Amino acid sequence: MRSLPLPLALTARLSPVVVLAAMGWALTSGPFAATSTTEHKATPTTGSGAQADPTPSASAVTKTYGASPAPCGSVTTATVKSLVPGAKTDGKEIPSTDEKVRRTCSWNALKGFDYRWLDVSFEISASDQVAQKSYTETISKKTGGGAVPGLGDSAYSVVNLTTQDKQQTREGVVVVRASNALVVVTYNGSDFETKKAPSTDEINKGAIKAAKEAVTALEGGKAA
Question: What is the three-class DSSP state of 89?
Answer without folding.
Answer: coil
